[in-house]
Amino acid sequence: MIPQEPFEAILAAARTGAEWALVELYRDLHPRVLRYLRTMEPSEAEDLASEAWIDVAAGLGRFEGDERAFRSWGFTIARRRLVDLRRQRGRRNTVPLPREAIVERAGTGNVEEEAMTELGTEEALARIATLPPDQAEVVLLRVLAGLDSGEVARILGKRPGAVRVLQHRALRRLAGEIPRESVTE
Amino acid sequence: MRRHQLDDDTADRLLSGRIQPDDAPPGYGEVARLIRAVSAPAKAEELAFQEQAIAAAVEVVGSQAAHRPAPRSRRSFVRQKLLRAKVAGLVVAGTIIGTTGLAFAGALPDGAQNTASNALAKIGISVPSGHPASTGQDISGVATTTDSTGVDKGAEISGLASGGVSQAGQHGAPDSTPPVTTPNSGGTGTADTASGGASGAGTGTAGTDSGGDSTAGSANDTTTP
Protein backbone atom coordinates (compact mmCIF):
# COMPACT_ATOMS: atom_id res chain seq x y z
CA MET A 1 0.00 0.00 0.00
CA ILE A 2 1.28 3.48 0.66
CA PRO A 3 4.90 3.21 1.79
CA GLN A 4 4.96 6.41 3.87
CA GLU A 5 2.15 5.49 6.21
CA PRO A 6 1.52 2.24 8.07
CA PHE A 7 -1.75 0.55 7.32
CA GLU A 8 -3.06 1.19 10.83
CA ALA A 9 -2.65 4.95 10.37
CA ILE A 10 -4.39 4.85 7.00
CA LEU A 11 -7.26 2.83 8.41
CA ALA A 12 -7.65 5.13 11.41
CA ALA A 13 -7.72 8.19 9.17
CA ALA A 14 -10.15 6.55 6.74
CA ARG A 15 -12.55 5.88 9.59
CA THR A 16 -12.72 9.61 10.23
CA GLY A 17 -13.50 10.26 6.58
CA ALA A 18 -10.04 11.52 5.63
CA GLU A 19 -10.07 11.65 1.86
CA TRP A 20 -6.39 10.86 1.38
CA ALA A 21 -6.74 7.68 3.42
CA LEU A 22 -9.84 6.54 1.57
CA VAL A 23 -7.96 7.11 -1.69
CA GLU A 24 -5.16 4.84 -0.49
CA LEU A 25 -7.57 2.08 0.46
CA TYR A 26 -9.48 2.45 -2.79
CA ARG A 27 -6.41 2.37 -5.01
CA ASP A 28 -5.20 -0.76 -3.29
CA LEU A 29 -8.46 -2.68 -3.21
CA HIS A 30 -10.66 -1.56 -6.07
CA PRO A 31 -8.50 -2.55 -9.09
CA ARG A 32 -8.04 -6.05 -7.65
CA VAL A 33 -11.74 -6.46 -6.94
CA LEU A 34 -12.61 -5.10 -10.35
CA ARG A 35 -10.36 -7.63 -12.08
CA TYR A 36 -11.90 -10.43 -10.07
CA LEU A 37 -15.44 -9.33 -10.90
CA ARG A 38 -14.69 -8.66 -14.56
CA THR A 39 -13.56 -12.24 -14.86
CA MET A 40 -16.44 -13.71 -12.88
CA GLU A 41 -19.28 -11.42 -14.02
CA PRO A 42 -18.06 -9.01 -16.71
CA SER A 43 -21.41 -7.45 -17.56
CA GLU A 44 -22.00 -6.30 -13.95
CA ALA A 45 -18.43 -5.92 -12.77
CA GLU A 46 -18.34 -2.14 -12.50
CA ASP A 47 -21.59 -1.91 -10.57
CA LEU A 48 -20.70 -4.78 -8.27
CA ALA A 49 -17.27 -3.33 -7.54
CA SER A 50 -18.78 0.08 -6.77
CA GLU A 51 -21.36 -1.43 -4.43
CA ALA A 52 -18.67 -3.49 -2.72
CA TRP A 53 -16.57 -0.37 -2.20
CA ILE A 54 -19.45 1.46 -0.54
CA ASP A 55 -20.03 -1.57 1.67
CA VAL A 56 -16.37 -1.44 2.64
CA ALA A 57 -16.59 2.27 3.44
CA ALA A 58 -19.70 1.71 5.54
CA GLY A 59 -18.03 -1.09 7.46
CA LEU A 60 -14.70 0.59 8.16
CA GLY A 61 -15.73 1.41 11.71
CA ARG A 62 -16.28 -2.26 12.48
CA PHE A 63 -13.27 -3.68 10.68
CA GLU A 64 -10.42 -5.00 12.80
CA GLY A 65 -7.20 -6.33 11.31
CA ASP A 66 -4.13 -5.70 9.22
CA GLU A 67 -3.67 -4.99 5.54
CA ARG A 68 -3.96 -8.64 4.59
CA ALA A 69 -7.15 -9.02 6.59
CA PHE A 70 -8.48 -5.87 4.94
CA ARG A 71 -8.05 -7.37 1.46
CA SER A 72 -9.63 -10.62 2.57
CA TRP A 73 -12.53 -8.67 4.03
CA GLY A 74 -12.91 -6.58 0.88
CA PHE A 75 -13.02 -9.65 -1.34
CA THR A 76 -15.48 -11.32 1.00
CA ILE A 77 -17.79 -8.35 0.57
CA ALA A 78 -17.31 -8.31 -3.20
CA ARG A 79 -18.04 -12.01 -3.47
CA ARG A 80 -21.15 -11.61 -1.34
CA ARG A 81 -22.36 -9.00 -3.82
CA LEU A 82 -21.63 -11.40 -6.65
CA VAL A 83 -23.49 -14.25 -4.99
CA ASP A 84 -26.46 -11.99 -4.23
CA LEU A 85 -26.64 -10.91 -7.85
CA ARG A 86 -26.58 -14.47 -9.09
CA ARG A 87 -29.18 -15.49 -6.57
CA GLN A 88 -31.43 -12.68 -7.72
CA ARG A 89 -31.03 -13.83 -11.24
CA GLY A 90 -31.86 -17.33 -10.19
CA ARG A 91 -28.98 -18.88 -11.91
CA ARG A 92 -26.12 -20.86 -10.56
CA ASN A 93 -23.25 -19.78 -12.78
CA THR A 94 -22.56 -17.25 -15.45
CA VAL A 95 -20.56 -17.22 -18.61
CA PRO A 96 -18.26 -14.25 -18.06
CA LEU A 97 -17.61 -13.36 -21.67
CA PRO A 98 -18.80 -14.65 -25.00
CA ARG A 99 -16.89 -17.84 -25.71
CA GLU A 100 -15.45 -16.50 -28.93
CA ALA A 101 -14.05 -13.45 -27.23
CA ILE A 102 -12.34 -15.51 -24.57
CA VAL A 103 -10.68 -17.85 -27.04
CA GLU A 104 -9.64 -14.95 -29.22
CA ARG A 105 -8.19 -12.95 -26.35
CA ALA A 106 -6.66 -15.97 -24.71
CA GLY A 107 -4.22 -16.43 -27.55
CA THR A 108 -3.45 -19.22 -29.93
CA GLY A 109 -3.07 -21.96 -27.40
CA ASN A 110 0.55 -22.44 -28.34
CA VAL A 111 2.12 -22.06 -24.92
CA GLU A 112 5.72 -22.03 -26.11
CA GLU A 113 5.02 -19.31 -28.63
CA GLU A 114 3.04 -17.15 -26.23
CA ALA A 115 5.73 -17.39 -23.63
CA MET A 116 7.93 -15.35 -25.93
CA THR A 117 5.58 -12.38 -25.85
CA GLU A 118 4.67 -10.01 -23.05
CA LEU A 119 1.35 -10.96 -21.60
CA GLY A 120 -1.08 -8.17 -20.82
CA THR A 121 -3.41 -8.12 -17.80
CA GLU A 122 -6.53 -8.37 -19.95
CA GLU A 123 -5.18 -11.34 -21.83
CA ALA A 124 -4.11 -13.04 -18.65
CA LEU A 125 -7.53 -12.56 -17.11
CA ALA A 126 -9.15 -13.84 -20.27
CA ARG A 127 -7.00 -16.96 -20.04
CA ILE A 128 -8.09 -17.54 -16.46
CA ALA A 129 -11.69 -17.04 -17.54
CA THR A 130 -11.37 -20.16 -19.67
CA LEU A 131 -10.98 -22.25 -16.54
CA PRO A 132 -13.98 -23.88 -14.88
CA PRO A 133 -15.56 -21.19 -12.65
CA ASP A 134 -14.54 -22.69 -9.33
CA GLN A 135 -10.92 -23.07 -10.48
CA ALA A 136 -10.88 -19.56 -11.92
CA GLU A 137 -12.21 -18.13 -8.67
CA VAL A 138 -9.58 -19.89 -6.60
CA VAL A 139 -6.77 -18.59 -8.81
CA LEU A 140 -8.17 -15.05 -8.81
CA LEU A 141 -8.58 -14.91 -5.04
CA ARG A 142 -5.13 -16.31 -4.48
CA VAL A 143 -3.42 -14.03 -6.97
CA LEU A 144 -5.45 -10.80 -6.75
CA ALA A 145 -6.29 -10.80 -3.06
CA GLY A 146 -2.99 -12.39 -2.05
CA LEU A 147 -4.76 -14.93 0.16
CA ASP A 148 -3.54 -18.38 1.12
CA SER A 149 -5.56 -21.50 0.45
CA GLY A 150 -7.06 -21.48 3.95
CA GLU A 151 -8.35 -17.92 3.58
CA VAL A 152 -9.72 -18.67 0.12
CA ALA A 153 -11.44 -21.75 1.53
CA ARG A 154 -13.11 -19.62 4.18
CA ILE A 155 -14.39 -17.10 1.65
CA LEU A 156 -15.67 -19.80 -0.69
CA GLY A 157 -17.10 -21.96 2.07
CA LYS A 158 -14.94 -24.92 1.02
CA ARG A 159 -12.40 -27.10 2.80
CA PRO A 160 -8.74 -26.04 2.41
CA GLY A 161 -7.97 -29.43 0.87
CA ALA A 162 -10.64 -28.91 -1.76
CA VAL A 163 -9.17 -25.50 -2.58
CA ARG A 164 -5.68 -26.99 -2.97
CA VAL A 165 -7.05 -29.60 -5.41
CA LEU A 166 -8.78 -26.87 -7.41
CA GLN A 167 -5.65 -24.73 -7.60
CA HIS A 168 -3.52 -27.68 -8.74
CA ARG A 169 -5.97 -28.50 -11.48
CA ALA A 170 -6.13 -24.84 -12.49
CA LEU A 171 -2.35 -24.54 -12.71
CA ARG A 172 -2.06 -27.71 -14.74
CA ARG A 173 -4.76 -26.50 -17.08
CA LEU A 174 -3.16 -23.10 -17.48
CA ALA A 175 0.14 -24.80 -18.19
CA GLY A 176 -1.51 -26.61 -21.05
CA GLU A 177 -1.35 -30.05 -19.53
CA ILE A 178 -5.10 -30.21 -19.75
CA PRO A 179 -6.22 -29.05 -23.20
CA ARG A 180 -8.03 -25.73 -23.12
CA GLU A 181 -10.70 -27.07 -25.42
CA SER A 182 -11.84 -29.43 -22.70
CA VAL A 183 -13.06 -26.54 -20.60
CA THR A 184 -16.82 -26.62 -20.39
CA GLU A 185 -19.17 -24.43 -18.49
CA MET B 1 5.59 -32.58 -23.05
CA ARG B 2 5.04 -34.04 -19.61
CA ARG B 3 5.16 -31.23 -17.06
CA HIS B 4 6.61 -31.13 -13.63
CA GLN B 5 4.28 -32.34 -10.91
CA LEU B 6 3.81 -29.39 -8.58
CA ASP B 7 3.90 -29.84 -4.86
CA ASP B 8 1.83 -27.63 -2.55
CA ASP B 9 4.70 -25.34 -1.67
CA THR B 10 5.65 -24.72 -5.30
CA ALA B 11 2.00 -24.10 -6.18
CA ASP B 12 1.75 -21.58 -3.33
CA ARG B 13 4.88 -19.72 -4.43
CA LEU B 14 3.72 -19.72 -8.03
CA LEU B 15 0.30 -18.31 -7.18
CA SER B 16 1.76 -15.66 -4.89
CA GLY B 17 4.03 -14.41 -7.69
CA ARG B 18 7.23 -15.38 -5.89
CA ILE B 19 8.50 -17.49 -8.77
CA GLN B 20 9.99 -15.67 -11.75
CA PRO B 21 9.01 -17.10 -15.14
CA ASP B 22 12.60 -18.16 -15.79
CA ASP B 23 12.78 -19.94 -12.44
CA ALA B 24 9.48 -21.74 -12.78
CA PRO B 25 9.34 -25.54 -12.94
CA PRO B 26 9.47 -26.97 -16.46
CA GLY B 27 6.29 -26.13 -18.34
CA TYR B 28 5.14 -23.48 -15.83
CA GLY B 29 7.06 -20.46 -17.05
CA GLU B 30 4.03 -19.28 -18.96
CA VAL B 31 1.84 -19.70 -15.90
CA ALA B 32 4.26 -17.61 -13.84
CA ARG B 33 4.13 -14.91 -16.49
CA LEU B 34 0.34 -15.01 -16.55
CA ILE B 35 0.11 -14.65 -12.81
CA ARG B 36 2.43 -11.67 -12.80
CA ALA B 37 0.30 -10.07 -15.51
CA VAL B 38 -2.88 -10.59 -13.51
CA SER B 39 -1.38 -8.87 -10.47
CA ALA B 40 0.21 -6.02 -12.42
CA PRO B 41 -0.21 -2.46 -11.05
CA ALA B 42 -3.56 -0.78 -11.54
CA LYS B 43 -4.29 0.83 -14.87
CA ALA B 44 -5.78 4.27 -15.33
CA GLU B 45 -9.06 2.92 -16.67
CA GLU B 46 -9.49 0.83 -13.55
CA LEU B 47 -9.38 4.00 -11.47
CA ALA B 48 -11.53 6.05 -13.82
CA PHE B 49 -14.30 6.50 -11.24
CA GLN B 50 -12.05 7.11 -8.28
CA GLU B 51 -13.29 10.65 -7.68
CA GLN B 52 -16.94 9.60 -7.46
CA ALA B 53 -16.08 6.54 -5.40
CA ILE B 54 -14.14 8.57 -2.84
CA ALA B 55 -16.86 11.23 -2.61
CA ALA B 56 -19.42 8.52 -1.94
CA ALA B 57 -17.16 6.90 0.64
CA VAL B 58 -16.59 10.19 2.48
CA GLU B 59 -20.34 10.67 2.67
CA VAL B 60 -20.95 7.12 3.89
CA VAL B 61 -18.20 7.28 6.51
CA GLY B 62 -19.55 10.65 7.70
CA SER B 63 -23.08 9.32 8.07
CA GLN B 64 -21.78 6.25 9.89
CA ALA B 65 -19.77 8.42 12.28
CA ALA B 66 -22.83 10.57 12.95
CA HIS B 67 -24.70 7.51 14.18
CA ARG B 68 -21.89 6.32 16.42
CA PRO B 69 -21.36 7.61 19.95
CA ALA B 70 -18.48 10.03 20.24
CA PRO B 71 -15.26 8.04 20.41
CA ARG B 72 -13.52 8.08 23.76
CA SER B 73 -9.89 7.54 24.31
CA ARG B 74 -8.86 4.52 26.33
CA ARG B 75 -7.45 6.89 28.94
CA SER B 76 -10.70 8.76 29.50
CA PHE B 77 -12.59 5.47 29.55
CA VAL B 78 -10.36 4.11 32.32
CA ARG B 79 -10.55 7.40 34.20
CA GLN B 80 -14.33 7.35 34.15
CA LYS B 81 -14.44 3.77 35.40
CA LEU B 82 -12.12 4.68 38.27
CA LEU B 83 -14.30 7.65 39.16
CA ARG B 84 -17.39 5.46 39.25
CA ALA B 85 -15.63 2.96 41.49
CA LYS B 86 -14.54 5.76 43.86
CA VAL B 87 -18.04 7.21 44.11
CA ALA B 88 -19.52 3.77 44.78
CA GLY B 89 -16.90 3.13 47.46
CA LEU B 90 -17.59 6.44 49.16
CA VAL B 91 -21.32 5.78 49.22
CA VAL B 92 -20.80 2.35 50.79
CA ALA B 93 -18.28 3.66 53.32
CA GLY B 94 -20.53 6.58 54.23
CA THR B 95 -23.47 4.28 54.75
CA ILE B 96 -21.47 1.99 57.03
CA ILE B 97 -20.00 4.82 59.08
CA GLY B 98 -23.31 6.64 59.38
CA THR B 99 -25.22 3.55 60.38
CA THR B 100 -22.59 2.57 62.92
CA GLY B 101 -22.64 6.06 64.40
CA LEU B 102 -26.38 6.06 64.74
CA ALA B 103 -26.19 2.58 66.23
CA PHE B 104 -23.69 3.81 68.86
CA ALA B 105 -26.04 6.63 69.68
CA GLY B 106 -28.93 4.20 69.89
CA ALA B 107 -30.79 6.47 67.53
CA LEU B 108 -31.85 3.89 65.01
CA PRO B 109 -35.39 2.54 64.90
CA ASP B 110 -35.75 -0.48 67.17
CA GLY B 111 -35.55 -3.08 64.38
CA ALA B 112 -32.52 -1.48 62.74
CA GLN B 113 -30.91 -0.86 66.11
CA ASN B 114 -31.28 -4.51 67.05
CA THR B 115 -29.88 -5.63 63.67
CA ALA B 116 -26.96 -3.23 63.94
CA SER B 117 -26.31 -4.27 67.51
CA ASN B 118 -26.22 -7.95 66.58
CA ALA B 119 -24.05 -7.37 63.51
CA LEU B 120 -21.53 -5.16 65.30
CA ALA B 121 -21.39 -7.55 68.24
CA LYS B 122 -20.00 -10.19 65.88
CA ILE B 123 -16.97 -8.01 65.19
CA GLY B 124 -16.51 -7.10 68.81
CA ILE B 125 -18.24 -3.73 68.84
CA SER B 126 -20.83 -3.18 71.50
CA VAL B 127 -23.72 -0.83 70.82
CA PRO B 128 -27.05 -0.59 72.61
CA SER B 129 -29.79 -2.83 71.36
CA GLY B 130 -33.18 -1.51 70.45
CA HIS B 131 -36.13 -1.52 72.78
CA PRO B 132 -37.78 -4.87 72.77
CA ALA B 133 -40.92 -4.70 70.87
CA SER B 134 -44.04 -4.98 73.02
CA THR B 135 -46.85 -7.05 71.75
CA GLY B 136 -50.51 -6.36 72.18
CA GLN B 137 -50.68 -9.40 74.46
CA ASP B 138 -47.99 -7.91 76.73
CA ILE B 139 -49.78 -4.60 76.92
CA SER B 140 -53.12 -6.25 77.54
CA GLY B 141 -51.56 -8.33 80.32
CA VAL B 142 -50.26 -5.26 82.09
CA ALA B 143 -53.54 -3.43 81.67
CA THR B 144 -55.46 -6.22 83.37
CA THR B 145 -53.03 -7.15 86.10
CA THR B 146 -51.35 -3.93 87.23
CA ASP B 147 -52.08 -2.60 90.67
CA SER B 148 -51.78 0.97 89.38
CA THR B 149 -54.84 3.03 88.88
CA GLY B 150 -55.81 6.19 87.16
CA VAL B 151 -53.00 8.28 85.73
CA ASP B 152 -50.37 5.90 86.98
CA LYS B 153 -51.97 2.97 85.21
CA GLY B 154 -52.28 4.93 81.99
CA ALA B 155 -48.66 5.99 82.22
CA GLU B 156 -47.55 2.42 82.80
CA ILE B 157 -49.47 1.06 79.81
CA SER B 158 -48.47 3.95 77.58
CA GLY B 159 -44.83 3.61 78.54
CA LEU B 160 -44.85 -0.10 77.69
CA ALA B 161 -46.58 0.43 74.37
CA SER B 162 -44.19 3.16 73.31
CA GLY B 163 -41.07 1.38 74.46
CA GLY B 164 -40.47 3.87 77.24
CA VAL B 165 -40.76 6.89 75.06
CA SER B 166 -44.16 7.99 76.31
CA GLN B 167 -44.25 10.69 78.99
CA ALA B 168 -47.87 10.20 79.81
CA GLY B 169 -48.75 11.07 83.37
CA GLN B 170 -45.55 12.98 83.98
CA HIS B 171 -46.66 16.49 83.19
CA GLY B 172 -50.03 16.73 84.80
CA ALA B 173 -51.04 19.26 87.51
CA PRO B 174 -49.45 18.73 90.94
CA ASP B 175 -51.44 16.70 93.46
CA SER B 176 -51.86 19.74 95.69
CA THR B 177 -54.12 21.46 93.25
CA PRO B 178 -57.57 21.74 94.83
CA PRO B 179 -60.40 20.09 92.97
CA VAL B 180 -62.75 22.26 90.99
CA THR B 181 -65.99 22.90 92.85
CA THR B 182 -69.15 22.41 90.87
CA PRO B 183 -72.73 23.12 91.84
CA ASN B 184 -73.67 19.48 91.36
CA SER B 185 -72.35 17.49 94.23
CA GLY B 186 -74.02 14.31 93.03
CA GLY B 187 -72.12 11.19 92.02
CA THR B 188 -71.00 11.02 88.46
CA GLY B 189 -69.51 7.54 88.37
CA THR B 190 -70.72 4.00 88.71
CA ALA B 191 -69.16 2.70 91.84
CA ASP B 192 -69.78 -0.92 91.01
CA THR B 193 -67.92 -0.61 87.73
CA ALA B 194 -65.03 1.28 89.22
CA SER B 195 -64.69 -1.07 92.09
CA GLY B 196 -65.30 -4.25 90.26
CA GLY B 197 -68.70 -4.72 91.88
CA ALA B 198 -67.39 -4.55 95.46
CA SER B 199 -68.56 -1.09 96.23
CA GLY B 200 -71.33 -0.62 98.63
CA ALA B 201 -72.11 2.84 97.48
CA GLY B 202 -75.15 3.74 95.42
CA THR B 203 -75.12 2.82 91.82
CA GLY B 204 -77.34 5.48 90.41
CA THR B 205 -76.64 9.04 89.58
CA ALA B 206 -78.18 10.63 92.56
CA GLY B 207 -78.05 14.09 91.20
CA THR B 208 -80.28 13.20 88.32
CA ASP B 209 -82.96 11.55 90.41
CA SER B 210 -83.01 14.25 93.01
CA GLY B 211 -83.10 17.13 90.67
CA GLY B 212 -79.61 18.17 91.69
CA ASP B 213 -80.29 18.20 95.42
CA SER B 214 -78.77 14.86 96.27
CA THR B 215 -75.64 14.80 98.35
CA ALA B 216 -75.02 11.10 97.93
CA GLY B 217 -71.34 10.19 97.84
CA SER B 218 -69.72 9.60 94.55
CA ALA B 219 -66.44 8.07 95.61
CA ASN B 220 -65.65 4.39 95.58
CA ASP B 221 -66.02 2.58 98.80
CA THR B 222 -62.62 2.76 100.39
CA THR B 223 -63.31 -0.46 102.26
CA THR B 224 -63.43 -2.43 99.11
CA PRO B 225 -60.50 -4.82 99.08
Task: Kindly describe this structure.
The complex is a heterodimer of chains A (185) and B (225). By secondary structure, chain A is mainly alpha-helical. Chain A contains 10 helices and no strands. Chain B contains 9 helices and no strands. At the A-B interface, helix 2, helix 3, helix 7, helix 8 and helix 10 of A face helix 1, helix 2 and helix 3 of B.
Record the SSE blueprint.
The complex is a heterodimer of chains A (185) and B (225).
Chain A: H1 7-15, H2 19-40, H3 45-59, H4 67-89, H5 99-105, H6 111-114, H7 121-128, H8 133-144, H9 149-156, H10 160-174
Helix pairs in contact in A: 1-2, 2-3, 2-4, 2-8, 3-4, 8-10, 9-10
Chain B: H1 8-15, H2 29-38, H3 50-66, H4 74-105, H5 110-122, H6 136-145, H7 150-161, H8 191-195, H9 206-209
Helix pairs in contact in B: 4-5, 6-7
In short:
The complex is a heterodimer of chains A (185) and B (225). Chain A contains ten helices and no strands.
The proportion of residues in beta strands of chain B is under 5%
Report the principal-axis shape of chain A.
Answer: globular
Spans of chain A of 5+ residues with little confidence (pLDDT < 50)? 98-117, 180-185
- The count of DSSP E runs of length 2 or more, i.e. the number of strands of chain A, is 0
> Quaternary status of these chains?
heterodimer
CATH architecture of the largest domain in chain A: Orthogonal Bundle
Largest sheet of chain A: none
CATH superfamily of the largest domain in chain A: Winged helix-like DNA-binding domain superfamily/Winged helix DNA-binding domain
| Greatest interface (CB-CB under 8 A), with counts per chain | A-B, 50 and 39 residues
Residue-averaged pLDDT of chain B: 68
CATH class of the largest domain in chain A: Mainly Alpha
Number of strands of chain B: 0
Q: SS-based structural class of chain A?
A: mainly alpha
Number of helices of chain B: 9
Tally the helices of chain A: 10
Instruction: Find the structural class of chain B using helix and strand composition.
Output: mainly alpha
